[in-house]
Write a structure and sequence with these properties.
The chain is mainly alpha-helical and about 55 residues long. It has one domain. It is built from 2 helices and no strands. The chain is rod-shaped, with a radius of gyration of 24 Å.
């Protein structure tokens, strides 16, 4: 059985495509995080207290 040897050129092409995909994913993630970032930083405890008060009232 012969072993298949990849040429370094093909390996570099595959590696560069993987890096491009990773860069795109990071960019998309950053954009989505900025888009859906809360405009006002809220305290989680305050939010939970408000929910309890609404439930009681």
């Amino acid at each position: 059985m012969k072993s298949i040897k990849f040429s370094t050129r093909i390996y570099k092409q595959i590696k560069s495509k993987n890096q491009e995909i990773n860069n795109l994913e990071e960019g998309i993630t950053k954009v989505l995080q900025e888009k859906y970032k809360p405009k006002v930083l809220c305290n989680i405890e305050t939010l939970s207290e408000k929910k309890v008060q609404r439930g009681v009232a």
